[in-house]
Amino acid sequence: MKKFSLLKKVLATTALSMALISSANAAKEKKYIIATASTGGTYYPVGVGIATIASLKLAKKYKMTFSAITSAGSGENVDMIDKGEVDFAILQGLFGSMAWQGVGKYEGKPRKNLRSVSMLWQNVEQFVVYKKYAPTNNIMDMKNLYGKKFSIGKRNSGTRVSGQTILSALGIDYNKMDLQFLGYGPSSTALQDGKIDGMNIPAGPPTSAVVNAYATIGADKITHLEFSDENLKTIQAKFPVWTRYIIKKDTYPGQKKDIKTIAQPNLLVVTKDTPEETVYLLTKTMYENLAFLNTVHKATKAMSLQKAIDGLPMPLHPGAAKYYKEQGIKIPDRLIAK
């Protein structure tokens, strides 16, 4: 009995020691979460790519790991980062600007805790509709979808907000449409099944949801609506975050000519309370491994140190600023956190 009692004590002590060691190791490891968007767009694969390369490079030496999660997009990402549910988030430039300034959805409640890490790539506006509604192939043809089913994006997403902002600026009443609030993948599926007549898919081309739609339906039946210089000027008068963007021919199945559209920047953000070392190392890892990110999604080929701070709507996190300064990038006063 004494031997058995002693054995129980030894086992109990060993189990407790192992638990304490495991707990200590877990305490040393820092886990960070990056909020992206739905799987059919560009945010998710790029977010996964950033998380993967950062974990591979930083886990062993710095005990840092990163993971990417899906979300409804920019709107939900701001909410989650506010609540401390995620550490980093990818946002549309428009949404980031609204959140920082406290306008639109954030009227009177600016998110001054947000800090920029980097401009990632441009978010290209892609209004894809059935050709029968697009006699001029211009964005103003959206008026032909009054009374029709159009997917504007998930309810709490930057996709919905940017789409509605663009349409409103052009005098197109989206409330006259039968709006559907779907993510990228579901939008594409619904368009292919004839359950909607068009979809709003802002993302870096080629976007899988759009590729799938063209491959299944055919370029003879659906089309991207284009933006004229006058359209762009009208939109810029409301929110000067958009610029001209050309989707080169052959980007999508059956696409035989360039598409004249517009784009806004996407950015990676973090809160001001995130450790400087974490943000510095993540920023450094991203830019030292662009070749890897380029294999994840073609949109990342637009990333470069020379464009890293272009169009950022809020100050840089000190960790990111430190890396850019080391690389000889001159940071304007408006991007220096006070």
What would your notes on this structure say?
Helices cover 40% and strands 18% of the residues. With 338 residues, it is α/β, with parallel strands linked by helices. It folds into two domains: 28-122 and 267-335, D-Maltodextrin-Binding Protein, domain 2; 124-264, Periplasmic binding protein-like II (D-Maltodextrin-Binding Protein, domain 2, 3-Layer(aba) Sandwich), CATH 3.40.190. Strands 1, 2, 3, 4, 10 and 11 form a six-stranded mixed sheet that branches. It is globular, with a radius of gyration of 23 Å. The termini are far apart.
CATH topology of the largest domain: D-Maltodextrin-Binding Protein, domain 2
CATH superfamily of the largest domain: Periplasmic binding protein-like II
Main sheet: strands, sense, barrel: 6 strands, mixed
User: How much of the polypeptide forms β-strand, as a percent range?
Assistant: 15-25%
Instruction: Report the radius of gyration as a whole number of Å.
Output: 23 Å
Structural class: alpha/beta
Reported CATH architecture of the largest domain: 3-Layer(aba) Sandwich
Number of helices: 11
Count of separate structural domains:
2
Distance between the ends: 69 Å
Number of strands: 11
From the structure provided, what is the oligomeric state, counting identical versus distinct chains? single chain
**Uncertain stretches:** 6-24
Look at the structure and give the mean pLDDT.
91
SSE run: HEHEHEHEEEHEHEHEHEEHHH
Q: Considering DSSP H and I runs of 4 or more, what fraction of the residues is helical?
A: 25-40%
CATH class of the largest domain: Alpha Beta
Sum up the overall morphology in one term. globular
